[in-house]
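If your schedule permits, I should be very grateful for your opinion on a structural question. I have a record of one protein: its chain in single-letter code and its fold written as discrete structure tokens. Kindly check, if you would, that the fold set down in the tokens agrees with what the sequence suggests. I remain grateful for any guidance, and I place the record below:

***
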Amino acid sequence: MKKSDKLVMAALEKLQKREHLLRVARNQMALGRITEEEFRKREAEILDRYRLTVSEERAYNLYLRMIGKRHK
């Protein structure tokens, strides 16, 4: 597997985990299990923890462009 492929996979995994954890936190807030303040705190932690590196972001953007060209 090429380095760029590994970077894309890492980016996709991070984005997937981030979206899942944000969805869980939103649901907890909607159900009244956590306050909006607690949600904001968790959201910031999640976004920070699963932030893409510059290399991952570059590889992911290239991947998106390649996929977009295939579907035109």
